[in-house]
């Protein structure tokens, strides 16, 4: 009787239950860990060094060695430390403190051992030779807050415009008549996403207490129009639509008829 | 003094190595010395030779990314060195966390915390589960899972580039080892240590036990942070072959009977070793 109620604990049973315990605990720990990882890598407000791959790929590749940080002659780059809610150990910079001075030899990029910072996109082939082209970097995009930019008030300020290393193409000044005084001009800074490198020299130079021009990663600084708006005055844009998939015209019973048919052959009066 | 140095020769050598490497890394970052630049994740020696943490690379591969060749070469160099020569020596001779956990261990001994401790509650195989988990999670989340939390990385980067709140992580490891579990972090939890234990399993430099000299005083087992590796002590002669041995040499130092020494493991004519 006692033999039937009391099960023997065999080696196999021991092994299986130990495995089950370990797998269970691993699953538990794994879920907590995953939660942390997903949170940590979602921190979106970081500006990465020039040549950094798209954020998701950058996070995969960055081995957190700090060689880019050490190579930067201006101490622009920092490694994220715990408590800052940034992915641990990855390089970033805060332009208002120290912007990227866009060294022509880009010392931070070639030292990256993993390729998280790559020459792709910031080099050009010139006369058969590869040359760094820092002005092609796209670390982020400068955004102007019109309400706190004093140039929009009519006060003359071109600090960001003059600080910009790709002056007159990344930031242009747009002249507008100042109706209030009737005899002055507004000098409005306008950022072009085609040329802005995201170096942050403008943000650093901005005279307002909290900068009215600031650099944000592209994902945060830019909107997305979608595919269905067409610049009818732009032949290229019209062509684009011709080859576009996924754009469908909604067809209803009414719209099956041409407008003329619809107007002349009824529909209007019948309703 | 001479006697103290003799009885702590490997300890002194280890501290000099650990401290020297840290000093070179700091000098590389602060003064731009080119002897050793970067950190334990990836470094450059004399501006030429790359080194890279193979476990970090494995996590990167698990995310589905492929690294540039210099990191790959760096990892191969490390794998060859520890796989053939150093065994799990990284843990005892290089890793800065060893300074923290050894301090906790030292305090445990002089405060007699060992004697009043509860039974071990965390198995030594936990680290292997965490090693596997780190790779699975790297695959699942697309970011090196252990690198995102590694207190070793936090500590080493902290010393070289600044801590932030990172000291809290290091302090918690210290307290864990001091009050919660003997050799808690390195002996039970650390997946990087587990990785080097697997990597260094067949390396050549080993602690060798000469059984006829052993008086079963058990001093070596008292001091060893990876006690199970010494299972042959007093039983039979041979090399300490378990990968978990960190080659710290503490057992060799404390043995007063010349029963333990460093040596090269012989795969051929193994039965002539006695």
UniProtKB/TrEMBL annotation, chain A:
Keyword Electron transport: yes
Pfam families reported for this sequence: Fer4_7
Keywords of this entry: 4Fe-4S, Electron transport, Iron, Iron-sulfur, Membrane, Metal-binding, Repeat, Transmembrane, Transmembrane helix, Transport
InterPro entries: 4Fe4S_Fe-S-bd (IPR017896), 4Fe4S_Fe_S_CS (IPR017900), MauM_NapG (IPR004494), RnfB_subfamily (IPR050294), TAT_signal (IPR006311)
4Fe-4S ferredoxin-type domain: residues covered: 52-82, 89-122, 140-176, 187-218
Residues that span the membrane, as ranges: 15-38
Matching SUPFAM superfamilies: 4Fe-4S ferredoxins
PANTHER family for the chain: DIMETHYLSULFOXIDE REDUCTASE CHAIN B, OXIDOREDUCTASE
Protein name (Swiss-Prot/TrEMBL): Ferredoxin-type protein NapG
Organism field: Sulfurospirillum tamanense
Name of the encoding gene: napG
UniProtKB/TrEMBL annotation, chain B:
Parts of the chain that traverse the membrane: 56-83, 128-146, 158-181
Keyword tags: 4Fe-4S, Electron transport, Iron, Iron-sulfur, Membrane, Metal-binding, Repeat, Transmembrane, Transmembrane helix, Transport
Record keyword Transport present: yes
Chain ranges of the 4Fe-4S ferredoxin-type domain: 205-235, 236-265
InterPro entries (UniProt xref): 4Fe4S_Fe-S-bd, 4Fe4S_Fe_S_CS, Electron_Trans/Redox, NapH_MauN
Top-level lineage group: Bacteria
A Pfam family reported for this protein in Swiss-Prot or TrEMBL: Fer4_10
PANTHER family registered for this protein in UniProt: FERREDOXIN-TYPE PROTEIN NAPH
Name of protein: Quinol dehydrogenase ferredoxin subunit NapH
Organism name: Sulfurospirillum tamanense
Gene: napH
